[in-house]
Amino acid sequence: MELSSEDLHYIQQLGKNARKASIELRSIGTDKKNNALLKLAEMLDNERAAIKLANSQDVENAQQESLSPALIDRLILSDKSIDSMIQSLNEIVSLKDPVGEIISGWTQPNGLNIKKVRVPIGVIAIIYESRPNVTIDVAALGLKSSNAVILRGGKEAIHSNKILTQLFQKSVRLENISTSSVQLVEHTQRNLLYGLLRLKNDIDLIVPRGGEGLINFVSQNSLIPVIKHDKGVCHMYLHNSSDKEKAIPVVINSKVQRPGVCNALETLLLDKDLPYAEEVLLALVEHGVNLHGDTLTREFYENLNNKIIIHNLTDEGYHKEYLSLDISIKVVDSLEGAISHINEYSSLHSEAIISESYSAIEIFLNKLDSAALLVNTSTRFHDGGQFGLGAEVGISTGKLHCRGPMGLSDLTTAKYIVSGNGQIRV
Q1: Which of 29, 112, 313, 337 shows its CA 20 to 30 Å from the CA of 355?
Q2: Looking at the DSSP assignment, which residues form a beta bridge with residue 354?
Q3: What domains appear along the chain, each with residue ranges and CATH number?
């Protein structure tokens, strides 16, 4: 993808500005960073009307372009959303600054003192779709960990992202911190993304979070290391020992509470001997959820009650991430059958078991290897804020550098400091 000289200059300047800011951020103390975040929290509260007005432009445009309900749901900034951003900022302020932490230290027999110390990664580019609250969350985590951040949101949220970035830059300016510590790619054409992925001399890490198409494009075109925050085909297995009173509310919460996010339940696995299968399926139907399943599953359950209608699976089958009030259902013969299904179809995001059997739980935990395994609780808890991390850059489904919610410490790397007293190597 060729860039015009003007576009190339624009994207290169973002990178150079971010690199310069990242060098300055190394020496910025915790108090200044926290003060900037507290000022931002106050601004978000005071500028609610302006934020919601900008957001309404994005929502209106998304509706006119007939974007999916899940995408529009992620796009909306309500008072509740603004409250959540403010809460995240306050929580991030309360967290310990990871920069400068001594990870380990020791003294060699020759008297050399060696310390391994946490340091910022440097410049991180975050590429995301729809959700404007990500602008605040990831920029705040970036600042607190002394990283410069380049934000590339989707065009559907451009007005929301612009005003949030402007407020962020205003807050850091008040603390004499470079406004280039957080920058937004304000031009939305796709070829600029391609240009961003090639700034290997100025950007240290790319973090894409969004749909499968975005993740694949970034992975295939980046010259910069990538930490993928991939789709969430999240599973829950109801073991035959599970407690109905515990299980049904957990299933409903996992699917219905917010269906358009990556930690929402997408596949429900039911043990063939589960005594309350009819009740859990009816509960889903009553909450407006559409059921999908293979031939075996449909035949197994549709005779239970004529209100239970299980539709054919989509072409994606059990790989499908719906992000809507739809769910895949699968009847399995046993715990081992559930584990086998998950190992075949999982996106390595979140898997849950509802069971009262300690041995079944232990087998489930030992034989699966996703970013988070949950026991007798909702998949919706796989979240940086819910884990006490303040917020998250995203949920990493890979295995290198970090896994699961990417919080403050995951935005750091390490360097060694070696102190001696004139020692030489012989």
Answers
A1: 313
A2: 238
A3: 5-229+393-419 (3.40.605.10), 234-381 (3.40.309.10)
Q: Is residue 1's pLDDT more than 70?
A: no
Percent of the chain with pLDDT over 70: 100
8 A C-beta contact, residue 140 and residue 146: no
* DSSP assignments along 119-139, one per residue: EE--EEEEEE-S-THHHHHHH
Instruction: At 239, list the tokens.
Output: 């073991």
Written as six digits, the tokens of 139 are 């920029």
- Where is 291: in which H helix or E strand? strand 290-293
The CA–CA distances, whole Å, from 165 to 125, 170, 296 equal 14, 9, 51
Entry pTM: 0.88
Compute CA distances 246 → 289, 319, 350, whole Å. Answer: 19, 27, 19
- The letter for the amino acid at 103 is I
- Mean predicted lDDT score pLDDT of the chain: 94
Residue at 201: amino acid letter: N
Q: Which residues pair with 106 in a beta bridge?
A: 114
Q: What is the pLDDT of residues 26-45, one digit of tens each?
A: 999 999 999 999 999 999 99
Pairing mode of beta strands 404-405, 182-184: unpaired
What contacts 86, CB < 8 A, 6 or more positions away?
41, 44, 45
Give the up-direction half-sphere exposure of residue 71: CA atoms within 13 A in the CB hemisphere. Answer: 19
Q: Where do the H-state alpha helices sit in 183-237?
A: 190-196, 212-221
Residue 214 DSSP one-character state: H
